[in-house]
Amino acid sequence: MNSKAGKYLKNSWSRIIAFRRKTNRRKLTNLSFLSLMIFAVSATITPSSLRSIIEAFKINFSQVGVLFGVSFSGYFVGVSFGGFISDRLGRNVISLGILSLAISLLSFGLSSNYWILLVLIWFIGSSGGLIEATASALVSELHPERKGYSLNLSQVFFGIGSIIGPLIPGYLLFLNLSWRLSYIIISLITFLLFGLFFRVEFPLLTYTQRIDSSKVLKLFKSKMFLLLSICMLLYGGAEVGLTSWIPIYVQKNSFSSAIFGSAALSLFWGGMTAGRLLISWLSSKVPYEYLMLFSAGLGMLSTLVAIFSTYITVVLIFFAITGFCLSGIWPTLLACAGDIFPVYLGTAFGVLISIGAIGAAIYPWLIGLFVKLVGMRYAVCTIAILLLGILSIFLYMIKYRPY
Question: pLDDT, tens digit, for every residue of 103-117?
Answer without folding.
Answer: 999 999 999 899 999
